[in-house]
Amino acid sequence: MFILLGNKIDIQTLYETGETMKKTLLFLPMTIIILVLTWAFAAEDLSHELNENIVRLHIIANSDREADQILKLRVRDALLHAAGTHPDRLTDAQIASVCDKEIAASGFAYPVHVFRGSFYFPRKSYENLTLPAGEYRAVRIVLGNGAGQNWWCVMYPPLCFTGDAYTSLNQEAMQALEGTLSPETIAAICESERITIKPSFKLLELWQSLKTKLS
Question: CA angle at residue 178 from 118 to 212, to 5 degrees?
Answer without folding.
Answer: 25
